[in-house]
Amino acid sequence: MNRTVLLIATFDTKEQEAVFLIKCLQARGVEVLTMDAGILSPSGISVDVDQDQVARHGGNSLKDLLAAGDKSACLFNMIRGAEILTAELYEQGRFHGVISIGGGQGTDIGCAAMRCLPTGVPKLMVSTVASGRATFGPFVGTKDITMMHSVADMQGLNFLTRRILKNAAGAICGMVQSAGTADPGPQGIPVALSMLGTTTPGALRAKTILEDSGFEVVAYHQNGTGGIAMEDMIRGADFKGVLDLNLHEIGDRYVGGLHGAIRGDRLEAAGDTGIPQFIAPGSINYMVLGPLESLSPEMRARKLIVHNSYLTLVRLNHEELSGVGKLVAEKLNRAKGVTRVFIPLQGYSFPDRHSLPHWDPEGNRVFVDALKAGLNPEIPLVELDAHINDPEFIDPVVEEFLSVMNAT
Amino acid sequence: MNRTVLLIATFDTKEQEAVFLIKCLQARGVEVLTMDAGILSPSGISVDVDQDQVARHGGNSLKDLLAAGDKSACLFNMIRGAEILTAELYEQGRFHGVISIGGGQGTDIGCAAMRCLPTGVPKLMVSTVASGRATFGPFVGTKDITMMHSVADMQGLNFLTRRILKNAAGAICGMVQSAGTADPGPQGIPVALSMLGTTTPGALRAKTILEDSGFEVVAYHQNGTGGIAMEDMIRGADFKGVLDLNLHEIGDRYVGGLHGAIRGDRLEAAGDTGIPQFIAPGSINYMVLGPLESLSPEMRARKLIVHNSYLTLVRLNHEELSGVGKLVAEKLNRAKGVTRVFIPLQGYSFPDRHSLPHWDPEGNRVFVDALKAGLNPEIPLVELDAHINDPEFIDPVVEEFLSVMNAT
Predict the structure, then answer these.
(1) CB proximity A326 to B under 8 Å
(2) What dotted CATH number matches A4-178?
(3) Does B182 have pLDDT greater than 70?
């Protein structure tokens, strides 16, 4: 079966490179769909989606954009147009993977378009800016975008850019020729599981029990991106249920820590889509901050542990925990499906345990009281006298999850 | 011809994923060379390079490492071992591309090993940490490393990790099956050119003249990484000469700006290897700092331009320019090959021009005086009464470069 790759580029500045890439792709038997997202001179070669189509899908004609002369409005408009068109073309089954080449603006456009596609669809961005102090987040978001550092400027063809572009063409061809071929999909009932280093033993125990019971478990690291990636895939109908035993990203976002959720909609997708969600407040009661020596005196006076020379885990104070409890209640109250909450009274994370540095049962009590005060009384909340990593906590939670899942 | 991929993984935690990847690679007709960089339980499958070999190449046996029990020393040792072995195996022609999968530590190991390989050799890192606030620099360095965000944790196989790993296998196979096939190499005498937005017109003019004269020009963006990538490729004997008309990274590093060279050896490789280098101080007299509102009062009082809402270009003061001039002289004095310096008296970058915000001829004079005072008098220094972007500057510089290059 013929495979097609969507190529997104600003042909005004990258036509030579785009043409070379097209030849490489075609030489490997892959068809190419081209989208010109440039705003200056139109492509010299015929493209499938031209710059004015991209502009209009973003809300304005190219002529109006150029007349207004606002550079950042222009970029925003072309991004929006590329996003909409890419999603549409994918839904029409017009391509199987996407490749883009660009500098600063081209990378913004290409990655934004890729982020509109489901996880698993091959996505390759060849970028001059994928180096140095640039962070991954703004480019990859929650998606499996593959970023290739171009090393040299994309200023015409030379032995280096040809080598890089040829590798890129090979990579996307290899991906589309691989992707989808005999993908068996989930080998059990697919469920999502949230975890983090400080709740790993409990999460892995839950995972093993679930797998032994015929479920297929996808684990998401609660580092700010992982939980939101999980939310996105829940909305994409990839899961039948969620064992959300680590809410670190909610507490961390509430206080502006380094691993706060990258968007505000954590803990909402399961409720919105109505799949069963079992909740425990794993790691919700601390924030991740920078090196110990960078902390304010107020933060240094709190219960904390030095994770490594870059990261310090600092307890939330009681006021913050109260706010977080209220926030969790609000989110859960909107849920349309089965929702159950479980509280491990002996601690929410590895260091939050009797005689360990984060231990503060009064703080956890403030959180639970605020949660209970706000929670719809029809949502069951069970307190268990065990630690989040203990079998005495995990086993009954998973047992009840299994009975709900097997009943639906 | 059979192609081989080197797979680097910590088999203690990623064996299931590694085995799946091996099957995907073999299914596509690619041979796999395996390296186990884990320190806990040894691989359950037979590997080509085992964990103790990696450890010993890093300086210590696995037994000694584990006995010492220092986690970060352990990681450092395994990184060193993986680097040395990867470079050795590549030199022996044992593989054509490298793939690695990992979390935090696995990504550190895999990328470090990849950075030891020449640009152009396919390099794919499947990583759980290629998202959020993580920066590209520590992973890709100056190389064409391709980073694939795994989205979910690598905690065993499920429909998502299988999909990601299958795409990854496809990508590296597509790259090795593409790479090297009929690579014609440079289509002219290869020369390196340094440039940046603020010296683009001059650089592009130089590039066109060179290309019209039978040279193949690779342009490097002076953003902190580009210049060092150029240095690395000069040392790799990829170029016959360098037109180094933008030294922004040297000035920016001297004062700790955002686009300072990521290493201290900028402007040294051409001199060390003895290829001709023609130098001009493009963009050397400003630093790149963050948003205007984040600047100290001292910085805000300087000549500056707001590049965009994230970046501000601030002039170096006279003391700094004197130090930078001295530093450039020291570097050039060590050169073994033809070295010529050209000073554009009407300004070193777009905003450094009469009636534009960076214009400060006294500052440029301080730079030139310090440079001249330190420079070996046998190195010619020519002052031209033109701006770095003017044909009146570029044309004579390139003309002389051509005559030197054509004579060697």
Answers:
(1) no
(2) 3.40.50.12020
(3) no
